[in-house]
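not sure who needs this but someone in the group chat was asking about TonB-dependent receptor from Brevundimonas intermedia so here u go. i didnt clean anything up, its just raw.
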Amino acid sequence: MAAVCIAIALGLGSTSALSGAERREVAPSTEAIEEARVLPNAPGQTKPADASSTDEVVVLDDIEVVGRRGDTGILPEFEYDADLIDSQAASSIGEVMDRARDTFSPDEAPVIIINGMRVADPSIYYALPPDALSRLEVLPPGSAAGFGGTASGRVLNLVTVPRFVGKDGEFMGRAPTSGGFTQARVELSRAQMNGRDLVNLNLGLDSSSALNASDRPDYLVVHPESTATTLRPETRNLTVRSSIAKGHGDWFSSLNFDGRRGSNLIFARGIDDAVRLRSRNTTLRLDGGLTGTVSGWNVRLSLSGGLDRSAMSGLQTSTVHVRNLSGGFDLDRSTPGLPAGPIRVSLSGSMSNVASQIESEGARRRFSQMSHIVRGQLSIPLLTSASGVDNASDGTGRRWPAPLGGLDLSLGGSFQGGEDAGGNSSDIGLSWAPWRLLRVNGAWAHNETAPSDRDRFAPIAFGAPIIVYDFRREESIEVLPLTGGNPDLQASRSDVKQINAALGPFTKLRLLATVGLSRSEAHDAPGTLAPTLENEAAFPERFVRDQAGRLIQVDQRSFNLRSSRIDRMTSRLSLTRPSGIGARALSLSLNHSWLLADQTEPGGGLPEQDRLSGDGGGVSPQTLTFQANGRRGPWGLDVSARWAAPYRIRRTSRVDDGADLKIAGFGALDFRLNYAFLGAVSAGADGTPARRGAAASLVFAVDNLFDTRPKAQLADGRPAPGYGRSERDPVGRTVSLTLRRRF
């Protein structure tokens, strides 16, 4: 498939295409504009100009065209405007983006573009303050295919303000209402952006004291042997980030440095006494990027290098050194192809070299991995909707409307090679809009993937003690989780099928409903094991017990599961009242995820485990999340709630037993209330007031407002050990206060 895509791409015509930031649509009639306010992003339909837009109107050759900064020509499924962005009280553009990704694309990383076009390194914008972001567009499933991504992926379009200057300071203090520890963060930043030119510097220090078992008397009642242990570690983290970007005519270069130094300290229960465990980690990373055009192709080149050093002392002493170097290229263009519109072609390739050295107890192991990947993608419009804007022709000016609506096809393929693993991957997707308020997207993908560098070479360390239920002794016990990479991971294979439908948006409140079905089947995929009787019998090396038979350590590093299958249905209902309608900006969304099947065969001679029935550690079949964002004047509110359905954990697979665990449903609610104090407000680039001036803003946040904790009982009705108030979640409700000031 990759060879086919590359061959087709190289054989296409040489007509260049405008980037997303340069596209302009012919202004439609007033009736078309009114209709466009409720049009979904449909195949064969570009996004008409909004009649209320304040963006520039240009006249070229007696043709009036309307331009909107950062426009992709695709109508977003959801859009965060300035008020909705500010209502989240986020500290950076990256935080706003992460929330959008968790809401709209939790299972597949979206393609990130800047101002309607791909750049070599979009991360240079992530550390900017959120008011440097004009809007964030969430494009529908399948849109990633037109930007070099998969046939099922989404795109997040980050549209920045044209010019920005800010010197900011931030202080955050956080503590649980039950007491026990405090966390403080200080961050200073200096940013200046003028078009494509950018200079940004961030310095951050984060410190948290330890939460000790002695701070939770109810915990010690159940675990008196843990008097000197730590429930949450003492942490110190220093971060230095610097980004520089510069425009050079048609080209754009960037350089990004990220340095981090951190340490964790915990006291864990040992055989005779508490054991002091300390880990230190230092990370240095430098990324360079170049974006421009050559012979009609949009070109992106990248080069990255990084050094990691981590050291652990306590139960064992070890040091891990990791060095990585990678480079890559991305090419894309549009070219005339079919009557319905131009074909979008994307080609990409990358090469990486990772070397790791692990020193532990006098022994030394070295690992290295050289890998490369080449990918090709075609996005082909087959039909154009009769109700869409007239952008489809064969060069003669004739329209080619389709009574069946718009239809787009995407084809992708890749080849991955390396010293330890390689394989071919392919995907195909169809996007169909039979009606202006209905869009359907279907995709299939086959992937043969080598394990990520992090899965293989992440620093090995013991995490904070956790409570697990030991079915062998029928008791809850405090254990140390071993985390980090596994250099012995092998390549995995997977097949993913999914179909999604979106209905709406309706009315000026943009009421939108989406539903999706997916099936994922994998072989040798990375996974972990729950502490059950069967899992311990099949993989005894991952569960460590002391001489008395007490479980003291669980290996949570990934290993290759023999096979797995997950069927899932997702749905989403949202409405948005933009700031231009009424006095307040408001966004409400409700997300539902329903597991229809979750089956795993771990290997080691174990049979297939039905996790929905409680085998292999069980899993909650349904989750609900609710989000509400709003802003009025200087006030902003961000509310989020989550709920997980009850489920069962069987003592023995395929058998219901009175000693099984029955986990109760769990719900929690978080909120952030923010207020921007009045101050000297400078004018924005277009003459409108800037969103922040030389004044302070205050953010009051409460996580887990009702202080809910996980609960469970045994199937025969007895109380379940290990589910006391402070055992599964010793932190509970936390309160934080953040003060931000622009100088």
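also The CA atoms of residues 54 and 599 lie 53 Å apart. if thats useful
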